[in-house]
Amino acid sequence: MAVLPIKTVPDPILTRKAQKVKGFGEETKKIVRDLLDTLETARDPEGAGLAAPQLGYDKSICVTRKFFRDPKDQKTILHEDIVLINPKAYGKSKEVDLDWEGCLSVPNVYGKVERSKRVKVKAVNEKGEPFRMTANGVFARVILHEIDHLNGVLFTDLAVGETISEEEFTGLLEADVQE
Ligand code: ZN
Asked: Residue 95 belongs to what domain range?
């Protein structure tokens, strides 16, 4: 297991298109392990996904975290980590949402990004088996953000309007709670 430091802007690996994965041996397994281990420890902000270039690996691999309520206890939030290798987003819905995003590689910056509300993804899992899935809402946003990383695109390239600092963002959240 390895928790690696997260690359931050302006590291050039963050703005390059990642190489397609062709083998599913030890090297790919290690990158997946490092992504999962590092995502697990990412706090402030808590990560909902991580892409291989963020750890310095030039490979088209990302992990995305799907949160859901425990069916047995609605108050408990569980999560499942989904590994996407060579992912491709297709069938993006025309319906979009404009919402705040942040990124572990762009510290202290938050901005609003327009994303499709629903997206279909095809990818390969750690064993090299192809699969397809559909994601909605926040999870669709996370997936699109991570796939952008694999294409060298950062959320700040897409942000609508001004970006704000962590402090301002926290202030907004608190104002929301008080309303
Ligand atoms: Zn990011």
From this structure: 12-178
Q: Catalytic: 27? A: no
The pLDDT score that the predictor gives to residue 44 is: 58
Residue 6 lies in a domain: no
Q: Find the CATH number of the domain harbouring 149.
A: 3.90.45.10
Furthest-apart CA atoms within the chain: distance in Å: 52
How far apart are the CA of 142 and the centre of ligand 1, in A?
9
Cβ pair 126, 31 in contact under 8 A = no
Protein residues placing their CB within 5 Å of the ion ligand 1: 103
Q: How far apart (Å, rounded) are the C-alpha atoms in residues 166 and 45? A: 9
- Ligand 1 centroid–CA 67 distance in Å is 17
Q: Which of 80, 129, 146, 179 is catalytic?
A: 146
Tokens at residue 51, please? 């892409």
Question: pLDDT tens digit string along 29-85?
Answer: 999 999 999 999 987 566 799 999 999 999 999 999 998 899 999 999 899 999 999
